[in-house]
Amino acid sequence: MLILGIESSCDETGLALYDSESGLIGHVLNSQVDLHRLYGGVVPELASRDHIRFILPLLDELFKKTNKDVTDLNAIAYTKGPGLSGALLVGASVAESLAMSLAIPTIPIHHLEGHLLSPFLENNQPEFPFLALLVSGGHSQLIHVRELGNYEIIGDTLDDAAGEAFDKSAQLLGLGYPGGAALSKLATSGSSFYSLPKPLISSDDLNFSFSGLKTAVLNLVKKEQPLDDAKKANIAYAFQESITDVLTTKCLKALKEKNLSCLVVSGGVGANRQLRDKLKSLAEEHSFQLFFPSLEFCTDNGAMIAIAGFFRHQLSINKNYEFSVKPKWKLTEI
Ligand code: KG4
Ligand code: ZN
């Protein structure tokens, strides 16, 4: 069967085709990063308008690229939430109306489940049960994934998400928005000159807190004025050391507590090179299996929604063509 996946929850319009026999056969993406950079964050109204502008041309491009036709589709999966309501409505409207005209089912998808299942787009795939570290611009969660659809959030952020901390610290260093990848690149030319706090690293629970770390970056930036390139690189290095130490320490703690031997990392911050390297050496040292999506599928994309649709299709199908998006939606409420 052939499933079209549509992602439009925030600032990326992503579409993909997933074939149950041959896997992912094509994907296309328009990132709105340049549009929102000017404002230092995502502007919801501009996001919705850009989704409207790009979604149908992208759909045409996807079919051309894969030599498929709209009539080849057997189902359409789309992000139902959580996310920006106007942005979600664009993807949902296209999905539901197209499905209605073709008389095929739709599969509404939870955006975080898409991230969770993105490592299944790779050849080397995890097996249930596993621990998932989901680190994006909006979330920092440790999830005990018992099986498809059975998710327990065992750790969460008490304030800022990991990606948010990366973005805010990057902004303090003058790196623009979103700055996670730029900060990470800058850190490669820094060294261990400063040390920053590692919030909750030794706490008894599995929660995170990153707002204090961001404030510590702010104080260091103020103290070290005027900032030259070397100082900036050293601050980026210290920030990345702290945040990746906290994330990796909590992963190890969660694996031990839940007696799990498989860790799946997903979400935009999962693209971070240092986080990946630290987890790889921990996996060797502590003998657990480690799975990541490829870099292009760490950030928001249509492929993760298409594969989540493929998994979900086996569980339930929506044939009503009635829809509502869910801007606020807990993963445990699926
Ligand atoms: O998953 P995603 O595309 O969107 C959300 O659902 O939030 O994640 C975006 C986040 C941004 O905060 C961005 O700065 C961060 O992922 N990010 C990174 C890297 N690449 C993207 N953070 C650290 N290192 C990176 N290489
Ligand atoms: Zn996301």
UniProtKB/TrEMBL annotation:
Fe cation binds at residues 111, 115, 300. CDD domains: ASKHA_NBD_TsaD_bac. Residues 24-306 form the Gcp-like domain. Its cofactor is Fe(2+). Substrate binds at residues 134-138, 167, 180, 272. Belongs to the KAE1 / TsaD family. This is tRNA N6-adenosine threonylcarbamoyltransferase.
